[in-house]
Amino acid sequence: MFRPINQQEIKKIVVKVGTRLLTYKTGKLNLGIMEKLVRELADLKNQDKDIILVSSGAVGAGIGKLGLKKKPVSIQEKQAVAAVGQGILIQFYEKLFAEYGHIVAQVLLTREDIENRGRYLNSRNTLLHLFKFGAIPIINENDTISTEEIEFGDNDKLSALVSTLVDADLLILLTDIDGLYTANPRLDPSAKYIPLVEEISPELKSVAGATAEIMAKGGMITKLEAAEIATSAGIDMVIADGHEENILKRILSGEPTGTFFCAQGGHLRSRKRWIAFAQKVKGTITIDQGAEKALKIQGKSLLPIGIIQVSGDFARGETVGIYSPQGYEIARGLVNYSARELKQIMGCKTMEINNILGYACEEEVVHRDNLVLCG
Asked: Of 163, 139, 25, whose CA–CA distance to 86 is shortest?
């Protein structure tokens, strides 16, 4: 049942390690886990794999260093604790990797680095050049300056976006549980282990609950959201227990450990990945069946005549979700008109735009080159 991994075909690997794995309940770093993780990553690097480590633990490390009894609540406290912890974290990684002869590079990202097209490309180029130089990028959210990132702040989604950024072959999420279950196995003894996920359904999402642990930000639901991003971009993903010995080697050898999420289709082009996953959806457009067919089957652009409803407050150039009459998201793309303008021209023919608005920006509401189908 478990889908085998062909190690020879896997070149770029993104590994994410969570706070619960890296820190004790006291908040101090678990050096034994860090040493084991670094040894495994160094061994993969010795096999000429391109490795990216997305590491949580900055706030936890700061908590331990400052002797705090609990996670800070205010944004300002979180930023200060992260500023202390980030230096500690990278210092340990640098020391550990150096013992195996490898160079690391710290890369701090914010959501804006992913959403802004220019910064997205700069981030991609930086990471690809680090591969070229043989360095191992260690990535974290820049919690010290980005208030929204801390509130949003799960590295599961960040690791999935990084995977799409570099067109990775495999994403591995290491956590403190051995995979996905039908319920929380710590609370429900009848919970059943799920070794393989071929499609992420709404029912599957319903089994994942938010975490309540003091140090962690995410939970299984954020891992499923990461899986949606990665698999939709043509990237396989595995959730596995980071406590297990030689876990990365076992995953890459095809051993049925953890939960394997199957990639859906081929890899999208860089620009399409950016549109599909890196952008915040600022509003929605509901279209009729004729427009749905034109997008999905005929590969055409979205025209105003097929729009039946516009929701949200978005500007030209922002990302919108495009929904079927039944309420399913079928695509998303960069829109050529604002929400206010679209409400005036929806349902109209293209030739009528100029008469209604007094000008015409584009014939298409969303051009097919700026549109990505969902699923």
From this structure: 139
